[in-house]
């Protein structure tokens, strides 16, 4: 890493840290001061949970190919937050959500999260060892074996709907197709562009890009997660401002400073 | 006691995170390398947990004779066979199985993905006439016609679409994911992540 990259990284990390610290304090004092823009995906999830409880059928939540220890670690944490939010709500029902993934490192994270969610409702005894499932897949062929195994699970376990967050390629089409044939609703998003494009077209309600990281702010009541959602928005607007200023500067130089 | 464990976990995570970050920003050092090696070993161990999980899930389904228990039986036999071949040092047979069964099956699945995508596009257009649907159809037609030889202006429009709006959209989505990743990372570094607080 060269020196300029180090300096930029440090400045960016410091800015993020400062924004998070300040916004968390504000959010703790007055949550209503930070209204969140409505996101269709997060409006649909409570309905999916309600359907699961009423039909006494499990909800399926998948991490896709994300795991801990690689570049997708942050997304794995975001997926765990989603599992926590979903499991806390489904804990009042009879069926435990089925959590799946193709990277083995997701297993301890998913187990721990599911356990904590049910522990918070004093219903730990309702978490079966088979609620979290690993379906391995070959790296060189993408997640095709994972997708094929899940299409079987979706049918065999009679899941009520699917929430697919994580890393998926075009194989997400198989999952969404299997769900739609059984008239099951789905909320899906991916950090890979191909998977994101397929999810946008085929999921009942798509989630786009960084929206996967803010489930805690939309489904929970924690000031920290709300602050992180606002920090993402603030940083995005800073980048938009910077890019607009740079474009304006280039245009001004071309128009007036050419000579 | 639980609270004590949470504090300890937070301290370990924050400490290790800061050391790793320091090693990345300043210079690669032995402590960071040792931490990365521990992480690699832990990840390797998680495969073992995964295999146990796989057996547990499918054995339970087989014993309870639930829906799809036939598939579970096939899975257990196949997994047992692969482990047996590995234990008896028959790597060639293992590779043959992989190449002739697994890769062939996944190639067939890749073909199925195409049909699923076409069906998905059909369903997307069946939702009714919306601006999104119209845009999708027009862009799809331009993309398909533009790839033909001698497509002229439509070929140029296709190239422009790929170079400007598609590229801008891609960068926008990736930038958003990158920002969210940084924020999540900082939350872990300062012990604000929910995993350490409950």
Quote the average pLDDT of chain B: 84
How many alpha or pi helices of chain B?
Answer: 6
Q: Identify the overall geometry of chain A.
A: globular
Overall structural domain count of chain B: 2
Strand order of the largest sheet of chain A: 3-2-1-4-5-6
Oligomer kind: heterodimer
Number of domains of chain A: 2
Give unreliable regions of chain B as ranges: none
Query: DSSP strand (E) fraction of chain B?
Result: under 5%
Chains forming the largest contact: A-B, 77 and 63 residues
| Protein structure class of chain A | alpha/beta
What radius of gyration of chain B results from the CA coordinates? 26 Å
- Looking at the overall shape, the CATH architecture of the largest domain in chain A is 3-Layer(aba) Sandwich
Mean pLDDT of chain A: 89
> Ends of chain B: how far apart?
12 Å
């Amino acid at each position: 890493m060269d020196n300029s990259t180090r300096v930029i990284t440090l400045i960016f990390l410091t800015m993020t840290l400062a924004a998070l610290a300040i916004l968390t304090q504000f959010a703790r004092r007055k949550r209503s001061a930070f209204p969140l823009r409505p996101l269709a995906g997060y409006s649909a999830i409570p309905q999916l949970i309600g359907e699961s409880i009423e039909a006494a059928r499990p909800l399926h939540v998948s991490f896709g190919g994300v795991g801990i220890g690689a570049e997708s670690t942050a997304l794995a944490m975001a997926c765990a937050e989603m599992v926590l939010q979903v499991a806390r709500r489904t804990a009042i029902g009879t069926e435990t959500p089925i959590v799946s993934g193709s990277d083995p490192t997701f297993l301890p994270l998913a187990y721990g999260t599911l356990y904590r969610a049910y522990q918070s409702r004093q219903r730990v005894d309702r978490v079966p060892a088979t609620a979290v499932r690993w379906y391995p897949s070959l790296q060189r062929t993408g997640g095709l074996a994972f997708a094929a195994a899940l299409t079987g699970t979706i049918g065999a376990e009679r899941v009520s709907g699917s929430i697919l967050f994580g890393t998926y390629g075009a194989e997400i089409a198989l999952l969404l197709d299997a769900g739609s044939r059984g008239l099951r609703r789905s909320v899906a998003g991916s950090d890979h562009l191909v998977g994101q494009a397929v999810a946008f077209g085929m999921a009942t309600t798509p989630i786009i890009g960084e929206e996967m990281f803010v489930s805690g702010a939309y489904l929970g009541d924690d000031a920290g997660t709300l602050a992180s959602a606002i920090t993402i928005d603030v940083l995005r607007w800073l980048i938009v401002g910077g890019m607009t200023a740079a474009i304006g500067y280039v245009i001004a130089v071309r128009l007036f400073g050419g000579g | 006691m639980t609270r004590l464990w949470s504090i300890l976990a937070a301290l370990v995570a924050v400490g290790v995170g800061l050391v790793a970050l320091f090693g990345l920003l300043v210079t690669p050092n032995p402590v960071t390398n040792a931490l990365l090696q521990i992480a690699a070993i832990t990840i390797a161990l998680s495969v073992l947990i995964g295999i146990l999980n796989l057996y547990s899930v499918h054995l339970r389904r087989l014993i309870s004779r639930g829906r799809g228990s036939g598939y579970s039986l096939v899975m257990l036999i196949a997994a047992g066979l692969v482990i047996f071949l590995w234990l008896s040092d028959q790597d060639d047979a293992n590779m043959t199985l992989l190449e002739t069964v697994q890769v062939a099956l996944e190639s067939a699945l890749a073909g199925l993905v195409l049909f699923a995508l076409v069906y998905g596009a059909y369903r997307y257009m069946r939702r009714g006439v919306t601006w999104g649907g119209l845009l999708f159809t027009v862009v799809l037609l331009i993309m398909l016609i533009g790839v033909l030889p001698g497509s002229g202006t439509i070929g140029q429009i296709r190239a422009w679409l790929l170079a400007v709006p598609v590229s801008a959209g891609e960068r926008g989505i990736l930038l958003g994911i990158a920002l969210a990743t940084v924020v999540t990372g900082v939350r872990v570094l300062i012990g604000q992540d929910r995993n350490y607080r409950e």
